[in-house]
Amino acid sequence: MAQRSTFRRKGRATIIDVGRVAGVSDATVSRALNRPETVSQTTRERIHAAIAETGYVPNPLAKAMVSGRTHTVGALVPTLDHAIFSKFLHALETELSAQSYNLVVAVTEGDNTLELEKAKKLLSMGVEGLIVSGLSHNGELLELAERAAVSLVATSYYEPGASLPTIGYDNEVAAKLALAHLTGLGHRNIAVIHGPVSSNDRTQSRLKGLHDAGNDIDLHFIQTSLDYRGGGEALLQWDRSMTAILCLSDVLAMGALFKLQADGIQVPHDVSLMGFDNMDPSEFLTPPLTSLKLPIEDMGKATAKAVCDHLQSGEPIASIELHTQLAVRDSTAPVGK
Amino acid sequence: MAQRSTFRRKGRATIIDVGRVAGVSDATVSRALNRPETVSQTTRERIHAAIAETGYVPNPLAKAMVSGRTHTVGALVPTLDHAIFSKFLHALETELSAQSYNLVVAVTEGDNTLELEKAKKLLSMGVEGLIVSGLSHNGELLELAERAAVSLVATSYYEPGASLPTIGYDNEVAAKLALAHLTGLGHRNIAVIHGPVSSNDRTQSRLKGLHDAGNDIDLHFIQTSLDYRGGGEALLQWDRSMTAILCLSDVLAMGALFKLQADGIQVPHDVSLMGFDNMDPSEFLTPPLTSLKLPIEDMGKATAKAVCDHLQSGEPIASIELHTQLAVRDSTAPVGK
DNA sequence: TCCGCTAATGTAGACGTCTACATTTTCGCG
DNA sequence: CGCGAAAATGTAGACGTCTACATTAGCGGA
Fold it and tell me: What is the mean pLDDT of chain B?
């Protein structure tokens, strides 16, 4: 803990202090650290001793400043407290970190104003790329990112015509796929339980995909809060004339299933139940839940790769479509059963 | 999109370019931006026009370098793909962001070597504080953080004697509390389902809390994988002589419950089932799951506050104990029933 | 022994912003 | 009309690291 004033200016030793102790210039120290082969054996040893003596730690800010790189990518997500986003971020972080990038996370609560505000913070800390969720954003966001020369990419979406690259899946098609499964089983009168529409463009797209279902299909849309409770409460608007329930999220489906179980209503005997997301527990439920698999982990990996490639090559980011897939399990059955 | 070579050096306009266009020095521009009241009205206007013209965006790195601050805090968590940690991070981010700090997240997969590696990356990008989960770490970590003059705080734990400040709860006490609930209902022969012990010191502590349960209590420890499947599979080692099952995580409890439901075993009639964590769905299960509430959100908030206070005041971080609490619901019943 | 080449090290200035201090301008008031 | 204080602006150098270029040292060969 010796406080050698020789090599301490404002608390921390600098590369110059190390040089002074080792009897060389700062440039030599820098070289010893970054390209050791250009420094003689003996000098290198003296320098390392000096580093140990001074407790020198490179100043990351000075480094970043001179290189102009922070190796940092920012992600804006509506929430962390939802398996979809945390799974996505997990995959994203893993891949980014494999390529030596750091991930800064900011939560937007689905609020475009807050999103803009947090985007500013991320930009003003020097992120090199910015990942957002969905397509509806404050108009200023794009402009902001462009001014900062930071490239933007949207996820949870695939829409090649959009004003920014998108990496994700087609929510409309996915919703159609889910519905087709139920109609294929003969269901014609179907409850659709979904979360709030405002400030959730994924839900909006999914609903859009359902709207032109066809004349002989009766859809009853039930909006509720996007949580387990909401799934249960939505059932108040359900009656047995609707032979199937399509939930636009597995959380809602589980909420509904638990309520049905509590009420003694048999799935799929009394009603078919289908989710959307394919979350971890879904396949273990009783009965195992039919759902729609979203390629969340792939999306995380692909997004990380795209951003890293872009930062390396300078090429613009291309949109990538990932595919959704039915996971047919026991919670859905033919209408007659 | 005019490419005025006058004010472009390496692609981006600098504060000096703005000054040149506005006909003032860089210092005046800097002041106009940071302390506008010290600059005359007319000059300010000219400067803002110049900023618009040049598309100037302050370089965050230079700023950080001169101020020596990044306003960034790092968090190392075992995984993001688990509600506990993502809930924690959500609360953490919310509070940090309220105090204008950014959050960098790194995933350790519960591996101390990887943790150390990622800690290095976080330090070398300039985090001002580092939040880790649990107490078992690579020894180098503490040393590293100290050298970088970055303060460390451990969460999910409360242990005032530890070598670093801890903000969390007492896992041993919590486990005892859970067990006491079951023994209080008369259960004497209890299965304890838990996840992998290695590299999970929270599980270790919880088990430690159970070990001196008392002579008349028979505990059957069943280790399994920490996921829904694991909870179900663990039941292979359970038989009806064990009148209660204590799962050291709600994920395991849900996995077990779903399997019990599938097998037609009634909870709590045939067996009492208790979880640990109190995750979102638990109260909606059929039957609602008795669990042990962990103060995860409080922990996130408290940790953020502690770190921010520390960074503001320079005072060392003090350990904080948060309390756990039983959430008694219908999945547990007296042994006779 | 000296030339010339290579290896090793030093010098100087750049990166973009901030700020203490110096200087200039402004303006009120006698 | 000029003095002096206050307001406005400029100058210079710091922050810590990197690197192109300049310089010195070292060494083998003739």
Answer: 93
